[in-house]
Amino acid sequence: MKNIPYSFLDLAILGKNRTMTETLHSLLNTAQYADALKYNRFWLAEHHNMPHIASSATSVLIGYVASGTQNIRVGSGGIMLPNHPPLVIAEQFGTLESLYPGRIDLGLGRAPGTDQLTAMALRRNDTLSANFFPKQIDELRQFFSLDNSNAKVRAFPGEGAQVPLWILGSSTDSAYLAAELGLPYAFASHFAPNQIQLAASIYRKNFKASECLEDPYFMPCVNAILADSSEKAEYLATSFYRMFLGIIRNDREPMQPPIDTMNGLWSVQEEEYVYNMTSCSFIGKKEDLRPEVERFCQVLEVDEIMITTPIYDCNDRLHSMKLFSELFNG
């Protein structure tokens, strides 16, 4: 695994009794630690109308993180392109690339990152925009291209900016699109694991080389909660399980502190559903997880792996990140 880069996705999740300001300061501390641990990328996800997730202004946070780090690539995992005019995204990421050259990634998704009512508020009269996602990507690429120099509408900054585009997805539709466009592909297996093997296979079999990429490049995102003992890791993971339990019950709260046991908090059906949603998770101590991570990377022919680490306590989260990095450096 020493040849596989490892990266980090942060959702800027608020914990119980923590403010937005504290959460965003913690996010930067996490990014700086990831930078020191040689993580390859630090991505942020676009979400809206979620009171306990602070990443709605994704481009702003990317600039915040890039300004406070030195080497790590910073980007979106992702920007939900149907929520935005492609010109605006070209200008925003052209600006970011001008400020932090060679360090900005632009991951693109189709979903709204929210509920349908909020999607309508974001997209106004363009509620069918998700149906034109491939066309929007073409428009965005045109704004970045030097070939757009004679157009009447141009992106400044943006035109000529070398911002790598990624396709993000959680289904086979995105796999076909990433393959057709010849772009790197990030799969959201941290919450939608069911189609990961099929999507990875479709992407590789159908990949068409492009100016951006000669060979397919596949990066799944997984949950990783590591500790010095299996018991401690399972204890920390109860915050993570309660978060997903709130999602399926539509009863969302700030991330809760860990508890000794989940017994009595969920039904048998809820427990099964949460475990199914989170099946692409590595929870335990480093020595036990090494063969599991190796097998995951081999079976899926992983080119890079991204983790998210939903742990309540900041110090425990950083320690988990350190242990995960040691899997690839030890």
From TrEMBL:
<dbReference type="InterPro" id="IPR050766">
    <property type="entry name" value="Bact_Lucif_Oxidored"/>
</dbReference>
<dbReference type="InterPro" id="IPR036661">
    <property type="entry name" value="Luciferase-like_sf"/>
</dbReference>
<keyword id="KW-0560">Oxidoreductase</keyword>
<feature type="domain" description="Luciferase-like">
    <location>
        <begin position="18"/>
        <end position="243"/>
    </location>
</feature>
<dbReference type="InterPro" id="IPR019949">
    <property type="entry name" value="CmoO-like"/>
</dbReference>
<comment type="similarity">
    <text>To bacterial alkanal monooxygenase alpha and beta chains.</text>
</comment>
<dbReference type="Pfam" id="PF00296">
    <property type="entry name" value="Bac_luciferase"/>
</dbReference>
<dbReference type="GO" id="GO:0005829">
    <property type="term" value="C:cytosol"/>
</dbReference>
<dbReference type="InterPro" id="IPR011251">
    <property type="entry name" value="Luciferase-like_dom"/>
</dbReference>
<protein>
    <recommendedName>
        <fullName>Luciferase-like monooxygenase</fullName>
    </recommendedName>
</protein>
<dbReference type="GO" id="GO:0016705">
    <property type="term" value="F:oxidoreductase activity, acting on paired donors, with incorporation or reduction of molecular oxygen"/>
</dbReference>
